[in-house]
Amino acid sequence: MDRRKLLLKAAPAVRDAGQKLRQAAAESALHHLDEKDFTVPEIEGEVFVGWAYENGMNTRAGRRIRDELMAAPPNQRCPLCSQGTVYQLDHFVPKSRYPTLCVDPLNLVPACERCNLLKGDRQPTSAENTLLHPYLDRISHDRWLDARTVHESGSVRLEFFVSPPDAWDPTLATRVQHHFTLLQLGQRYSPVANNLMSGMSALWGGMRQREWTILRDQLQAEAMSWFNKDRNSVEGVTCDTLAQDEEFCRTGA
Question: Which of 61, 91, 190, 240 is least surrounded by Cβ atoms within 10 Å, i.e. has the fewest?
């Protein structure tokens, strides 16, 4: 049987796979997906992925869909970490294990190179270690990112951590912590905070010399401005944390 006939014969399995993915996502049960349910009739998984890309994603129509998915995140920022530049489409569940989902739009997530590398081909084994899906897990309306100031050797640095709202389901809180840890977000956010403090040091220092409360109020205003855009903005959390640190506002150290 030629390739075209085999691909047409595989169409029902692909549609069924997409339905299974959406049902599992709606039930927060992506970890229950069974690889046996995502095979392709009469085609090896790796072969099918190659054919699907050649006959689908690499066509003009396929590239248009790919470009739309890549352009979806604001400012081309990776939706998994909010910092890296979108570089490629990541398969949220790996195509090596779930070949019938290799070109499903819900399974194609724009990501930066580092997030894609850190995520790898991991498949969740529980609800708690399922990464956040940027299309499905809408948590941006809540503030869950926080930081603490660390004073040492006459300088200040920030350490970021997850601080979920009390109203959150414990499973969601654990998932966010897992996402934060696996993608090394704490280590990635600290340089952003340090760069902001370095770039604003002269301006903030001038306010501090006039009156430390002026700097505190300015930091609070800047935090609110960032939070209006993103309640978990790294810059917003930085300004908010520094505003609450009287020692920093008074001395800068």
Answer: 61
Cα distance between residue 42 and residue 4, in whole Å: 13
DSSP string for 106-121: GGEEEE-HHHHHHHTT
Show contacts of 178-183: CB within 8 Å, 24+ apart: 178/128, 178/129, 178/130, 178/131, 179/80, 179/131, 179/132, 182/118, 182/119, 182/122, 182/131, 183/80, 183/81, 183/114, 183/115, 183/118, 183/119, 183/131
Angle at 100 between CA 95 and CA 106, to 5 degrees: 75
pTM for the model stands at 0.88
Note the pLDDT tens digit of each residue in 61-95.
Answer: 677 888 888 888 888 999 999 999 998 889 999 98
Question: Cβ distance 228 to 220 under 8 Å?
Answer: no
